[in-house]
Write a structure and sequence with these properties.
The chain has one domain. The protein is built from 9 helices and no strands. The longest helix is centred in the first third of the chain and has 28 residues. The model has no long low-confidence stretch (mean pLDDT 92).
Length: 206
């Protein structure tokens, strides 16, 4: 029987799955960042979020299931380093496609650069993974912290500070969950966070 603590940390890992963080962070951008709050109605935001969720979570998940069916990955949880290359590359392609579609829709530079940077970080992660299994959870968390750091510190949007502090707290929870579950070593977690933070921050700040 699982202990309550293990179940808690598994729940944290599931809720803050890196692919779910993409839609969650875009939702935060549209609902709380003044530029997008003033520009889009709720109906438009919901359509965009559905499009992003479908492309960055549903389609990559279906791709992993197909790869599992074809015997190209051993587990849908991608615990093995060898299992990660193709799913990560496919996911990065979906992110690039989504970013391009949003750019064509004149969605705004920040959302476009952010999604493009997510694609880049997953693409880079897929090849680093061949040598070292960095934490995708940590990479995703680092990306969210980077986005909010850019908005609060670089753009001076102080009203978003609460969300930045919250993202740091949640990143701590996510990183702790991966350590507790022994999914990664300390170095794999911190290097993953650094990778996500640096790529996202540099990309959105350009």
């Amino acid at each position: 029987m699982k202990s309550a603590s293990k179940s808690f940390w598994e729940l944290i890992s599931f809720i803050f799955h890196p692919l779910l963080l993409i839609t969650a962070s875009i939702w935060l951008l549209f609902e709380q960042y003044p530029y997008y709050k003033a520009r889009y109605f709720e109906e438009e935001t919901n359509i965009l979020l559905f499009f992003i969720f479908a492309n960055t979570f549903v389609m990559p998940t279906i791709a992993v299931l197909i790869l599992k069916k074809l015997g190209l990955v051993q587990s849908i949880y991608l615990k093995n380093q060898k299992d990660r290359l193709f799913p990560f590359l496919i996911t990065s392609m979906f992110c690039f496609f989504t970013a391009w579609q949003l750019h064509q829709s004149f969605i705004g530079d920040l959302a476009f650069r952010y999604l493009l940077a997510i694609g880049i970080s997953i693409f880079v992660l897929s090849f680093i993974n061949i040598k070292k299994k960095l934490s995708a959870h940590a990479t995703g968390s680092g990306g969210v912290v980077a986005l909010l750091s850019y908005i609060v510190i670089y753009l001076g949007e102080g009203e978003m500070a609460f969300w930045l502090i919250g993202s740091l707290f949640l990143a701590g929870l996510v990183l702790s969950s991966r350590l507790y579950l022994k999914a990664h070593s300390v170095s794999e977690i911190y290097l993953g966070f650094l990778l996500g933070f640096s790529i996202i921050f540099c990309s959105v700040a350009i």
